[in-house]
Amino acid sequence: MKRFLIPVLLSLFLVQIWFTGCASVPVHPISNDEQNESILKYPVILVHGIAVHDRKSIIDFWGRIPETLSNHGIKVYFGNTDAWGTFESNAEILKTTIDNVLSETMSEKVNLIAHSKGGLDSRFFIWKYDYGDKVASLTTISTPHHGAEIADLIFQQKIIHTKSVRNILKIYGDLYGDINPDLYNVNYQLTTFKMREFNENVIMDERVYYQSVYSIMKNEFDDLIFFNSYLYIKRIRGANDGVVSEASATWSNNNLKLENISHTEIVDYKKHKISGINIPDIYLDIVRDLGKKGF
Questions:
Q1: Taking all residues of the chain, what is their mean pLDDT, rounded to a whole number?
Q2: How big is the CA angle at 143 (ends 137 and 146), to the nearest 5 degrees?
Q3: Alpha helices in the chain (DSSP H)
Q4: Residue 216 backbone dihedrals phi, psi, to 5 degrees
Q5: Of 3, 125, 154, 243, which shows the fewest CB atoms inside 10 Å?
Q6: Whole-model pTM?
Q7: Which of 57-66, 126-135, 219-228 has the lowest mean pLDDT?
Q8: Residue among 155, 135, 114 nearest 266 (CA)
Q9: Burial of 164 (0-12, 13-18, 19+ CB in 10 A)
């Protein structure tokens, strides 16, 4: 097993460097004829996963997605969560963000669209603060609802539990610019065995509409950033997007699978078509469907 660890961790490290610091300011709708569509009743809040920020602006983590939604008259905001925050810590940040958005827009509810761990942060937030009356819907994008096999692999390494490594992880989180970084416990929370406990306790709120959208890679060459991690997850769990297995991403009674798109390509950071698909159109279809449901 150890022979897989270094290349897998290297792949993840490269992803972390690639996404350090991302688009920051809330995106407000601009005036154009498409605003007449009135797609959504409630504003959208985009919630990112690990290793990224939406409080800084170096690259656009969400690519063209906020602008596309904004151009269709949708109010779009960012969750402002930490890159390496635990469920508990990021839920508290989300509560502040959502309260502020509700106050600013005078809306009764919001729609959450959350990528990767952001989906778990959002689930935990709704459950912990009993916000089912303020969240109309939660759409998770490539979220490891049943845990991440790579988190298991990291947790199995004795070195990760040493005091020196945990101190290094703490320093790394502080340098990242997080409010409450906790890399060690974030990895622990994402393990498959810890997520079993999470799912037993953090149940769905009947007032909220939940759905899961996820993708899988065709093979290890689909996205070379995830060459090694894809192969590792494929060997032990099957189809995956380079980070999250299909088995883990499948959740709720509403699931949509997309083909030949990696874990990060699904947030449009490349800003071009992937396998013939214009990524922002996926999100436009999501909000149009939510609008038809009255959200």
A1: 88
A2: 110
A3: 2-19, 65-71, 87-105, 117-129, 149-155, 163-176, 183-189, 192-201, 227-236, 246-249, 279-292
A4: -135, 150
A5: 3
A6: 0.88
A7: 57-66
A8: 114
A9: exposed
Instruction: Give the distance from CA 252 to its chain's centroid.
Output: 16
What lies within 8 Å, CB to CB, of 107 at 6+ separation is: 42, 43, 101
Residue 57's H or E segment, with its range, is none
- Exposure string of 67-81, with b = 16+ CB inside 10 Å and e = fewer, is bbbbbbbbbbbbbbb
Please give the average per-residue pLDDT across 32-53, as a whole number.
79
Q: Which residues, at least 6 apart from 180, have a Cβ–Cβ distance to it below 8 Å?
A: 82, 85, 86, 89
Strands 110-115 and 44-47: parallel
Cβ atoms of residues 215 and 256 within 8 Å: no
Comparing C-alpha atoms, which of 61, 40, 66 is closest to residue 263? Answer: 61
Cα distance between residue 193 and residue 200, in whole Å: 11
> How far is 53 from 83, CA to CA, in rounded Å?
6
pLDDT tens across 111-122, in order? 999 999 999 999
Three-state SS annotation for 73-98: CCCEEECCCCCCCCHHHHHHHHHHHH
DSSP state for residue 212 in the 8-state scheme: E
